[in-house]
Design goal:
five-stranded mixed sheet, about 180 residues, single chain, alpha/beta, Glutaredoxin, two-stranded antiparallel sheet, globular
Length: about 180
């Protein structure tokens, strides 16, 4: 499992943009930026749609004011599904990252089997603050295991991540 002070995995993500498949690398998304990433079991699922994704969207401007360059939502879903979910949820600020092949999630060590729910392979729920590709702070939900009968959502909330970011605001260089 990846943890604090480790580099995020170097993978390629396949987005669907303007009717085309577009590949972006981890480096393109994370290098020279301080970002928040949160990963969840799946698009259109209840907790993810009712609380986590909209919560990060609602708090986006406050995160930005504290020096966060981007907020990424990652799920083991394809680009079509992630785009449809963003549209359904009216997401304009948080960038949804499709990890359809689970390359990032597997390399992070957070790929779990959720076949007990008919989901197959998915991500365990977590959030992280990542500075220039290095995991600065990890918010991993308890109970990590395959076929969990619960879906904890306590530590990876936007509110918890925001409280951490408030205590670690970076000084910016004068222009």
């Amino acid at each position: 499992m990846r943890k604090e002070d480790f580099q995020v995995p170097q993978v390629q993500f396949v987005f669907r943009e303007n009717g085309e498949f577009v590949t972006r690398t981890t480096s393109e998304l994370f290098d020279n930026k301080r970002v928040v990433i949160f990963s969840l079991p799946g698009a259109f699922t209840p907790t993810c749609s009712a609380y986590q994704l909209p919560g990060f969207e609602e708090n986006y401007d406050e995160f930005a004011a504290l020096g966060i360059d981007a907020i990424y939502c990652l799920a083991v879903n394809d680009g079509f599904v992630m785009n449809a979910w963003a549209q359904d949820q009216n997401i304009e600020k948080v960038k949804l990252i499709p990890d359809g092949n689970a390359y990032f999630t597997r390399s992070m060590g957070y790929l779990v089997n959720k076949s007990n729910l008919g989901f197959g392979q998915r991500s365990w729920r977590y959030a992280a603050v990542v500075d220039n590709g290095i995991i600065e702070k990890l918010f991993l939900e308890d109970g990590f295991r395959d076929n969990a009968d619960t879906d904890p959502y306590e530590v990876s909330t936007p509110e918890n991540v925001l409280e951490y970011v408030k205590t670690t605001v970076r000084e910016t260089a004068p222009v």
